[in-house]
Amino acid sequence: MTAPSTFGLSSEARNLHWLLTNLVEEVPGIQSVAVVSSDGLLLLSSDPGRNEEARQGLETPRTGPRGSAADLATVVSGVGSLTIGAARLMDFGTVKHTMVAMDEGSLFVMSISDGSLLGVHGSADCDMSVVAYHMALFVGRAGHVLTPELRTELRKSLESESSESSESSESSVSSESTGSAR
């Protein structure tokens, strides 16, 4: 897992990064995690810099939803919207969590109190009950601090990391081109 820079972030944002890091490192079988806002934007990820690196071919993608945090966020947002719509049609109340078991892995989506979603991509051999339990702990700890202001801060943090990543990639490609011309 790539540890995101938390320099300059509020204590609440640093705490969420810490909670997410612990979730990934402490629970066997978790491959990637994404926190997605109610409007589908990626707020926090277990591997925030990988999306740009994978697109530019700088890293071999791991097994996962196309190897990027943005792809996991898209899937989580879509599954969340679908299940919320289904619950409304069936008049069963709010959706608490969704689990999708596949041959080669699992997808878990859990609602956070503000309408945001926590999504986890697990390996085929992960213990679904253990993953769901730890997700519930994360939601319980994160839900009360995920304010509109914190969501804005997290989103801006991801955008700045993404722009810094592309600037450094562009400069390394530029220096490689210059070096090979000599």
Structure description:
The longest helix is centred in the last third of the chain and has 34 residues, at 148-181. Strand 4 and strand 5 form a beta hairpin. Strands 2-1-5-4-3 form a five-stranded antiparallel sheet, with helices on both faces. It has five helices and five strands, in the order αββααβββαα. It is 51% helix and 17% strand. The N and C termini lie far apart (37 Å). Mean pLDDT is 80; it is low at 48-66.
What series of H and E elements makes up the topology?
HEEHHEEEHH
SS class: alpha+beta
Question: Sheet with the most strands?
Answer: 5 strands, antiparallel
Radius of gyration: 17 Å
Q: In percent terms, what proportion of residues is strand?
A: 15-25%
Brief summary of the model shown:
It contains 5 helices and 5 strands.
Task: Record the SSE blueprint.
Blueprint: H1 11-26, E1 30-36, E2 42-45, H2 50-55, H3 69-90, E3 97-102, E4 105-111, E5 117-123, H4 128-142, H5 148-181
Antiparallel strand pairs: 1-2, 1-5, 3-4, 4-5
Helix pairs in contact: 1-4
